[in-house]
Amino acid sequence: MPSRKAILVFIAILSCAVLATTALAQGAGQPKGSPATDKVIAVRAAILIDGSAAQARHNVLIVIKRNKIDSVTEGGNPPAGATLINLPAGVTVLPGLIDTHTHIFLQGEDPAEGGYDIQLLKHPSSYRAARAAVAARRALEQGFTTLRDVETEGAGYGDVGIKEAINGGFIPGPRLLVVTRAISVTGGYPLEGYNPDIVVPKGAQIGDGPVELRKITRQQLENGADWIKVYMTHRSWVDKEGHLVSQPTLTVEELKAIVDEAHGQQKRVACHAYSGIGLHRALDGGCDSIEHGLSLDDAAIAQMLKQGTWLVPTLGVYRTDWAPENTEDGKRDRARFNEHEASFKKALKAGVKIAFGTDMGGIPWTEPIANEFDYMVKYGMTPMDAIKSATSTAANLLEMKGDIGVIAPGAYADIVAVQGDPLANIDALKNVSFVMKDGKVFKQ
Ligand SMILES: [Zn+2]
Prior knowledge:
about 450 residues; alpha/beta; Urease, subunit C, domain 1; binds zinc ion; disordered N terminus; TIM Barrel; 2 domains
């Protein structure tokens, strides 16, 4: 096998090639997305959920100058010379949606078609970059104007390149906050199960001990990580009583080195953690967000409240692809799903901060991202709180309060509209008919 460095260089070259090709197809490599023009746009919304108010607002005029919202008023007339977009009754206007847990470099790999492993072993980096670009476009089409994309799964720093291509206007896509390669320890991430004498690539960057893990954190931050992602649990199974057990990975001492380094550079740490020892180490080590949190016990919930830790539950992904019922994996899959429901309800009741996240990529990008809202509402969240979890609340997690997730003066003009009333029927969020990102209309 070539060295990891050689693989990364290879990925970088191929990614450039793909992006250059896309750019040429758009014509002479000219950015298409930004900056926004000086033209003033006014959007008239019959019904507006602005991301922060407790109720929907009616007959609202939103004035957009360049890429920002300039004013939001009840009634009123558009400024002279403004382009008016009328979004009539029957359509609900919202801030651009935010998914805080995605993988644009995953494609919901079907186990029957080689599953996860085949991507790292057989697909060229250019193929993966091209599909990531399609995933980004899919998200934007569905009204998701911001994603926190939580690792490339063996595609190196490919997310940084996709983000740059979007920001440069060469390909359409949401605002991306990227974590690059993510971190786990020896024995803590696939690929695994191969002949031990063969060195296979890993889906995350592997390190052991506080010194090595601090160095890895520095490398990822140097190379463009907006967040750091750590796998605090790995495999899971059920014990004799049928309860979920998760393999812990990093020690508290190891995690603290990562968190200390990231926080020192004013970056935050997202921790994949299911249950038990690994979950408690994640909290003791100072993770900013717990991803999945399948089995939060009372002590974990109390600690999350005390430390202000976020939960990104990703409910829907544990509903798909269950192994057959009477197999070990089948029992595990059902235990995950059942404990997750109880865990989410307990966290919600206790007042843990919850942000919308799906694990798209673990779910095929052909599925509606908004399916996740169904579970959140089914398990007790109000439709308005579910919408906020994907708008203003998610913006708080991302430390972008006031910039995204609200329709208010000073925010980026990320505005979407859906057919119907999502407060009455949360499924309306699957019918996105209008998307503006950064002051530019992408879908109308
Ligand atoms: Zn994930």
